DNA sequence: TTCGATACGCACCAAAAGGAGAGTGTCGCA
DNA sequence: TGCGACACTCTCCTTTTGGTGCGTATCGAA
């Protein structure tokens, strides 16, 4: 899990200077994480994982509570990052559909643990919130 | 992974009305996910997982690139959600330290898969981005 | 002939996120 | 006397996020 940090630490010890390659990799990993650790991205990812190929409006309906603007943006970013493929069928009215790539499916699988965590422990989280609120107020 | 949605679908089929309990649970899961799927939360979580107990400034230094404001906010929210314990030692100068709870450690473990994904596939992501940019421009 | 369906783009606006920097309180050290 | 250490808080400011509503293109149906 911490391969990069460990490698950096090792290299730092060895040469007393942080190599730029690892710095670039670390920042990229962070950037990717920051991108992907997004509410809408996670929700769209899950919708596509569950339903396979989806059309724009359909996807929005399944995700629920997302505006067209955010759906467009999220889908575009996911396409840019290689998580989904966008297929345009040049017919009228327009027909566009979205499918997860292998990369997207892998990410979805990686997020599986977080979903499980949330489903398993949400009661503990609300209990903690209640306790916190009482401690603050009382 | 999709236990809640499946349960809801089953109940919906059976009674033609969505029970409010599951709706509440689903919204709570979403809320928890939205909270937890945050860049700073993930980074702080990892820092604490790696280093055990950390003090405020120390934690900020390890996370890197986080402002005091965001560090305070992130830590407070994590405390509220029962992910960390905040211990104040009433000495001067002040000494406060933060440790993951069991819940926090579980979440950290759940995020492990996402970190691994990012470290494994970041090259594919940048390749996808380059390809996307070229397709857009060219 | 006009309406609806689809998948957006665009413009405008409100709210939230987030950064920079100054202030706080007390002690020990110089 | 005055500065630094720590863990913040507070204010001011900019940037990002996100919502709403309108425009668009074209075809078939009413």
Automatic annotation (TrEMBL), chains A, B:
Residues of the HTH hxlR-type domain: 26-126
PROSITE patterns: HTH_HXLR (PS51118)
InterPro entries referenced in this protein's UniProt entry, alphabetically: HTH_HxlR, WH-like_DNA-bd_sf, WH_DNA-bd_sf
Pfam families noted in UniProt: HxlR
Annotated Gene3D superfamilies: Winged helix-like DNA-binding domain superfamily/Winged helix DNA-binding domain (1.10.10.10)
Origin: domain of life: Bacteria
Keywords: DNA-binding, Transcription, Transcription regulation
GO molecular function: DNA binding
Protein name, per record: DNA-binding transcriptional regulator, HxlR family
Native source species: Bosea lupini
């Amino acid at each position: 899990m911490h391969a990069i940090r460990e490698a950096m630490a090792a290299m730092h010890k060895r040469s007393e200077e942080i190599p730029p390659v690892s710095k670039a990799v670390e920042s990229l990993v962070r950037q990717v994480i920051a991108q992907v650790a997004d509410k809408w991205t996670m929700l769209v990812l899950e919708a596509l994982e569950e339903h396979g190929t989806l059309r724009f409006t359909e996807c929005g309906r399944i995700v629920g509570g997302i505006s067209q603007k955010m759906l467009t943006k999220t889908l575009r970013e996911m396409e840019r990052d290689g998580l989904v493929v966008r297929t345009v069928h040049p017919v009228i009215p327009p027909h566009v559909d979205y499918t997860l790539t292998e990369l997207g499916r892998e990410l979805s699988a990686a997020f599986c643990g977080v979903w499980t965590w949330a489903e398993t422990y949400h009661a503990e989280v609300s209990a903690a919130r209640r306790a916190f609120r009482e401690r603050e107020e009382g």
